[in-house]
Specification:
This protein is mainly β and 447 residues long. Helices cover 2% and strands 52% of the residues. The strands form three sheets. It has an 18-stranded antiparallel beta barrel. It has a two-stranded antiparallel sheet with strand order 11-12.
């Protein structure tokens, strides 16, 4: 919303708000009945959530030709009813973005962009650095997740032609009740081809953290060991790429790849992760179908070694179109000790309507090892304390999503999903678990 544009000063108003209705049945395959029977957790629930995000931004042209710009915004969110994590009727108002920045050119085609203050930053494909803030729990709006900005961000960019180098310092906007005092720093180097492909690398170093890591018990027998502050000092390198359009027999194909290696000598951590996808667009068929096949994997801790091999996904983008491992399962398993074979089919009957069907076959990488964070630690039928799963098949998820652009400011999204538990989940419960089902419908207004 343009408020002012004169005397080298531009002011714009921003307003986004949304409302989301959610229903879930047999949440988490009713694992709580076995692993935490005293909790009283209800696996069937419905709730309503909403948020509003107002803001204002400015840009001022300096005499030197550089542009001074910035943005101030906030988020107020609320949940009515009890959500998937047994939290209800909660909400909060928090600062979102509040940064000042300067951009300009230095001659010979070199440009710069320097920024200080809370703002969004997404690097690469969102495998490691994307979601800078946490929603849900005491803040409400669990599914919407309207908060994205880091609590503090120092970002410097230099660009020349198709190459951009980014250096950063980040402090995530964590929940006050579970703030791990995390601080990150690193850099990203990226080449963007005008035809659509890219090639890049990201390095992330954890400067400070109180966040713990779980490690499987020796031989997989016994509860996992939880080491406070284990994340402190962790290093991660991520290489990512996407192909340009092909000619000839590979026309209409697109391939992407990510690989990451992680280490921390202080705690003997060595972990890895990766993803490959292949997409094909049926350009000559009605509704412009697009089919994408993918495989993603994140190492788990091997209980037969003293090295910690559990991958830490840091602050990844967890939406189904990005780095979610499954649809339902993404609420249960973070991107650690899991792998998934995925298929997505997207069709567009009209320019305003999009249907997407997603399937994920999800498995564990290491048996008897923490899959999420050790929450499924339990006593087996022989009286032994065990963690993780004893069969690698975790679940099969189906998700049908519909999106409609109502007008330039209004967007409707609806979805239904079901997760069929695999033998790994059945073995935890001790019987054949029932599917976990759910659905949602939301409307977002963006001005």
């Amino acid at each position: 919303m343009l408020l002012h544009d004169a005397d080298r000063l531009t002011l714009r108003g921003h307003l986004q708000f949304g409302l989301n209705a959610v229903s879930e049945t047999n949440l988490f395959w009713d694992l709580a009945a076995t692993t935490a029977p005293a909790s009283g957790f209800d696996p069937d629930t419905q709730w309503l959530e909403g948020y509003v995000k107002p803001g204002i931004s400015f840009a001022y042209q300096l005499d030197t030709g550089a542009v001074l710009y910035g943005k101030l915004s906030a988020v107020a969110s609320r949940t009515w009813g009890t959500d998937a994590f047994d939290t209800g009727n909660t909400g909060a108002a928090t600062l979102e973005e509040a940064y000042l920045a300067l951009r300009g050119t230095m001659g010979t085609g070199l440009s710069y962009d320097l920024s200080l203050g809370p703002r969004e930053l997404n690097l690469g494909t969102g495998m490691l650095i994307a979601n800078g803030a946490t929603s849900g729990f005491e803040r409400g709006a669990l599914k919407f997740g309207p908060r994205k900005a880091w609590e503090m961000a120092v970002i410097g960019r230099l660009s020349s032609g198709t190459v951009t180098a980014t250096a950063f310092y980040l402090d995530p906007n964590e929940l006050p009740a579970t703030d791990g005092n995390n601080e990150l720093a690193g850099f990203d180097l990226r080449h963007d081809d005008p035809r659509g492909g890219y090639l890049g690398a990201t390095y992330v170093h954890v400067l400070n953290s109180d966040s713990p890591y779980p490690q499987a018990a020796a031989g997989g027998s016994g509860p996992p060991t939880v080491t406070p502050g284990a994340r402190d000092g962790t290093n991660t390198v991520n290489l990512y790429a996407r192909t340009n359009p092909f000619a000839g027999r590979l026309e209409n194909w697109t391939f992407t790849g990510d690989v990451a290696y992680q280490w921390n000598d202080r705690i003997d951590l060595k972990a890895w992760a990766g993803r490959v996808t292949a997409g094909y667009s049926f350009v000559n068929l009605p509704w412009s179908p697009n089919l994408t096949l993918g495989y993603q994997t994140f190492s788990g801790d091997d209980p037969n070694t003293t090295t910690l091999e559990r991958f830490d996904p840091l602050y990844y983008q967890g939406s189904p179109s990005a780095w979610a491992t499954g649809s339902k399962s993404a609420s249960t398993f973070i991107n650690s000790n899991v792998n998934a074979l995925t298929v997505a089919l997207r069709v567009q009957p009209t320019r305003q309507d999009t249907w997407t069907l997603r399937y994920a076959h999800i498995r564990a990488n290491a048996l008897n090892s923490p899959v999420q964070f050790g929450q499924a630690t339990r006593i087996d039928v022989n009286g032994n304390v065990v963690a993780g799963v004893t069969d690698k098949h975790l679940a099969d998820d189906l998700f049908l999503e519909y999106s409609r652009i109502i007008n330039r400011n209004t967007f409707l999204t609806a979805g239904v999903s079901v997760s069929f538990p695999g033998a790994g989940i059945d073995n935890v419960i001790g019987r054949s678990a029932a599917p976990w089902t759910g659905g949602f419908v939301n409307v977002v207004f963006n001005f």
